[in-house]
Design a protein that fits this description.
Layout: E1 7-9, E2 17-19, E3 25-35, E4 44-51, E5 57-61, E6 65-69, E7 72-75, E8 90-92, H1 93-97, E9 101-104, E10 110-120, E11 126-135, E12 149-153, E13 157-158, H2 169-175, H3 181-189, H4 193-202, H5 205-212, H6 217-226, H7 229-238, H8 241-249, H9 253-262, H10 265-275, H11 282-285, E14 292-293, H12 299-306, E15 318-322, E16 333-338, H13 339-344, H14 368-378, E17 382-386, E18 392-397, H15 398-405
Helix pairs in contact: 2-4, 3-5, 5-7, 7-9, 8-10, 14-15
């Protein structure tokens, strides 16, 4: 578990207020959404069902929650206000898990679930880890007044986990739960179209977005086309902007516009901006979400941003110092600070005093060979893209360059060296 991470019993979250970064209340918690896993593995917490003042219930993913404290939930303030719809692989904690009869593994005794505790893992994931139960018959005199109560580990009870011999996408996903997105994408690619659609429907938005980014174009279009339009828009929002823009660019104009209209306005604006560039140019390759800091930010501020586990290694390798505004396109681009330099300087150092401004940034219309040459010549893993006005538009990462340099079918090749076999086959 994360060092010092508090254990929170879910009964304490019912009706708790949800606040945005400005301290304004946006709604109240009405339920918790979890995904059960095979055997006795603790369920992963996907998010919260939040009721807005309008009585509409929406889904707030855990990735948009910055803190769960006594009597309040803090969010990023970015809410998708579409009505919550439960998916087949999701379970509601209050609605489906509490008051359920389960069995103690050690004794075989039936008990009633009174409460569950959740705790945060080191990489910001949350899971249910313990179960508070009461022994005795359900209902009657034993329901509230009598019966021994105890708290046990999730693995010490059985009765609401998926069975090992069960069928369906849940078990397939559990089997490949630890796979990297690229490896899970390879699995999906070799499934039948029907099975591929079932698995895609069972994945949560963030996981499906990561996998889609690793799939061949035909598979991406096929899967996206089988999702409900509102969910397809959610998944596109969860993808890296450059990958989502590439996928949208392959769709018929009518479908593309319909999906863009369902997205958050800021996300849709990023997509439209990226689609305005030719595919094999720096503008077409770049992502619009690099780490941007103002010159008066400190090394400590920069390292805090770099630690974000959701960032790819290439995006975390350096920060970009710009005048406000901080979102791309930014104010005047001043230079780059590499991760190694951040490690060498004291935490209080201003990033504006240690920028590397020797290298010329890429222009948005720079062709792919020029971009590839830049990376090869200067041993870079990411490069800024700056327009004529000096604004940072985005960043090209080395993985995006490789995607476009390798053969179209490279994703179908398995890159696994056999044990004891070197690169020369010896």
């Amino acid at each position: 578990m994360a060092a010092g991470a508090p254990r929170i019993f879910v009964s304490h979250l019912s009706g708790v207020a949800v606040f945005d970064p400005n301290g304004d209340q946006v709604g109240r918690v009405r339920d918790l959404v979890v995904m059960l896993r095979v055997g006795r593995k603790p369920p992963r917490m996907l998010g919260l069902v939040v009721e807005l003042p309008t009585r509409r219930r929406i889904f707030l993913p855990m990735t948009r929650i910055t803190g769960i404290q006594s009597g309040q939930v803090l969010s990023t303030g970015v809410l998708n206000v579409r009505r919550f719809e439960q998916r087949p692989t999701e379970r509601l904690v209050f609605g489906e898990l509490l008051d359920r009869r389960v069995t103690l593994v050690e004794t075989g005794e039936e008990v009633t679930v009174l409460d569950l505790s959740v705790q945060q893992l080191p990489r910001r994931d949350w899971e249910i880890d313990r179960v508070f139960v009461r022994k005795g018959r359900k209902g009657g005199a034993f329901r509230r007044a009598k019966g021994e109560t105890l708290t046990v580990e999730w693995s010490d009870v059985t009765g609401f986990s998926l069975e090992e011999h069960g069928q369906g996408a849940e078990n397939l996903l559990a089997t490949f739960e630890q796979l990297r997105p690229a490896d899970l994408a390879n699995v999906l690619h070799h499934l039948s179209a029907k099975r591929r659609a079932e698995v895609a429907a069972a994945l949560d938005d963030e996981r499906l977005a990561d996998v889609l980014e690793e799939l061949p174009e035909d598979d991406q279009i096929e899967i996206l086309g089988k999702l409900a339009e509102e969910r397809a828009a959610d998944v596109l929002e969860a993808m890296d902007p450059d990958d989502a823009a590439d996928l949208l660019g392959e769709l018929p104009e009518e479908d593309k516009e319909r999906l863009l209209s369902l997205m958050q306005p800021s996300d849709a604006a990023d997509m439209r901006r990226l689609m305005a560039y030719e595919e094999h140019t720096a503008g077409g390759l770049m992502t619009t979400e690099p780490i941007v800091l103002r010159p008066d930010a400190t090394v400590a501020d920069a390292l805090a941003r770099v630690r974000n586990p959701d960032l790819s290694p290439a995006l975390a390798a350096q920060v970009y110092v710009c005048r406000p505004p901080d979102d791309t396109p930014t104010g005047k681009y001043l230079g780059t600070v590499h991760f190694q330099r951040l490690l060498r300087d004291p935490p209080y150092t201003l990033v504006g005093s240690i920028i590397d401004d020797d290298l010329q940034p890429l222009e948005p219309d720079a062709a792919l060979p020029v971009v590839a040459g830049f990376f090869a010549a200067y041993d870079m893993v990411a490069a800024p893209v700056v327009d004529e006005a000096g604004s940072l538009l985005g960043v090209v990462t080395v993985d995006d360059v490789l995607d476009h340099l390798l053969p179209e079918d490279w994703r179908e090749t398995e890159y696994h060296l056999e044990e004891g076999v070197g690169a020369d086959g010896a």
